[in-house]
Amino acid sequence: MKQYILDDSDDLWEHFARLIGEVSWPAGKYLANEMIGGKVSDWERVIVMMDDDKLAGFCAVVREDIVKGTGFSPFIGFVFVSEPYRGQHLSQELVKLAESQIREIGFHKAYIVTKHVGLYEKLGYQEIDTAIDQLGRKMRILAKAL
């Protein structure tokens, strides 16, 4: 499994944006549009895991996630594992890679917005708040000191 940590200056940026835009999850299309539209920049990153030419999973380190105006940043968002790769702990690997990037950039805390219960708690995240996302859903905001 090959890992790519991308910023918007990377030569493979648009290639991976297209792959991310083809996944079954609508948030993948949203992230791809943000990437192609030049809305992921500065210290934000997209992390991709490839199995030869197959997209195994991805996530992003972003200023804000689907819940806007929280005052929290940075977020690990868009965590996705392709169906054939589920159950292999790739989401945990992706989150750990994102945490490493967040530390490298100079932040000491990471945030995640989710409806899931239990997945991120296994990695040390704790719920600190709830908020309504852009689609009107109640979401949990989790945090972890890095």
Question: Your description of this structure?
Answer:
The model has no long low-confidence stretch (mean pLDDT 95). It is built from three helices and seven strands. With 146 residues, it is α+β, with helices and mostly antiparallel strands. The protein has helices spanning 13-21, 26-36, 90-105; strands at residues 2-6, 45-51, 54-62, 75-81, 109-114, 126-132, 138-145. α1 (13-21) runs antiparallel to α2.
Write the layout of secondary structure elements.
Layout: E1 2-6, H1 13-21, H2 26-36, E2 45-51, E3 54-62, E4 75-81, H3 90-105, E5 109-114, E6 126-132, E7 138-145
Helix pairs in contact: 1-2
Concise structural overview:
The chain is 25% helix and 34% strand. The chain has 146 residues and is α+β, with helices and mostly antiparallel strands. The two termini are 25 Å apart.
Features:
146 residues; alpha+beta; three-stranded antiparallel beta sheet; 3 helices
Strand order of the largest sheet: 1-2-3-4
Summarize model confidence as the mean pLDDT. Answer: 95
**What proportion strand?**
25-35%
Please tally the helical runs, counting DSSP H or I stretches of 4 or more residues.
Answer: 3
Major β-sheet profile: 4 strands, antiparallel
